[in-house]
Amino acid sequence: MPQEVRGVVSREKGKPVTVETIVVPDPGPGEAVVKVQACGVCHTDLHYREGNIEDAYPFLLGHEAAGVVEALGEGDVQGLEVGDYVILNWRAVCGVCRACRKGKHHLCFDTHNAAQSMTLKETGEELKPALGIGAFAEKTLVHSGQCTKVNPEIDPAQAGLIGCGIMAGTGAAINTGEVKRGETVAVIGCGGVGDAAIAGAALAGATTIIAVDTEDRKLEWAKGFGATHGVNAKNEDPVERIRELTDGFGADVVIDAVGIPATWKQAFEARDLAGRLVLVGVPAPDMKLEADFQPFFSHGGSLRASWYGDCLPSRDFPMLVDLALQGRFPLDKFVTERISLDDVEQAFEKMHHGDVLRSVVIL
Prior knowledge:
CATH superfamily of the largest domain: Medium-chain alcohol dehydrogenases, catalytic domain
Strand content: 25-35%
Number of helices: 10
Radius of gyration: 20 Å
Helix content: 25-40%
Order of helices and strands: EEEHEEEHEEEEHEHEHEHEHEHEHEHE
Shape: globular
Largest sheet: 7 strands, mixed
Number of strands: 18
CATH class of the largest domain: Alpha Beta
């Protein structure tokens, strides 16, 4: 039988979200209903509310989630069983597209979501789930491939964050940037994704990790994740300072976790010759990048975009959970506060003002 649950809905561009009764259908072939235990409040959810992703309102927000599989549809359900503890992912790979056939599953061009829609009880309108998940809800419907089994000993409030921001940042350092032992790394923007990139660089063995932000408080937070130096871009030129801290050469890897033209140019100029620039901050659709062409040739190296940290959830999610349980990855430090579904709009305000790394909805 379809179930009625509470969920956080964005009905109109730029308007406050509301908690509504939504209808979750029984899972169809290859689908799963997941009882959500925790879901982080991510900037992407705010982008959905503001219409920066698409305009297919109403949206069911939330996507950084962990929970328990409650029901499964028929057919291929990716080896899942009812009762499995899972982190939800928004890149359920198809396994057969041209990227997957090349063994590059993290670039899958035909990822899966649930075929059915959840709906608003009041109007019957179909809801567009954020990143195909929609987990600011007591229960949600997803494709079974979006469920990644992990060790159930991990706190759901911590585990859910791996499903987006933590993986995006850590993967930008380890998978996309390919940070190696002894290298130098600079991260521009020290929110949740930037701090995850710093933690990933530390995990990979970088010896100099330079955090760049415009707020001293965030720079202090960054040191808790492994940054060896902090640079306040309001007070000094970040490019010059990064070069000073890397013997005048620039960093081996520079990660732009902001995603605006100004920070991208800083990242480009702050890297060593043949260094790697990684863009993980998400640019707005109307942004334009203008730059002198000749330096692209003279610097060499590589310019990379990191989408979801170039992760493979089945490989990377369990790894990060195990490292956290071993005390080797500071996952717990990302959780600033635990809130209810009714507090999501206030959490957006705190995020906007930089008061939190992550607010996490507990269900």
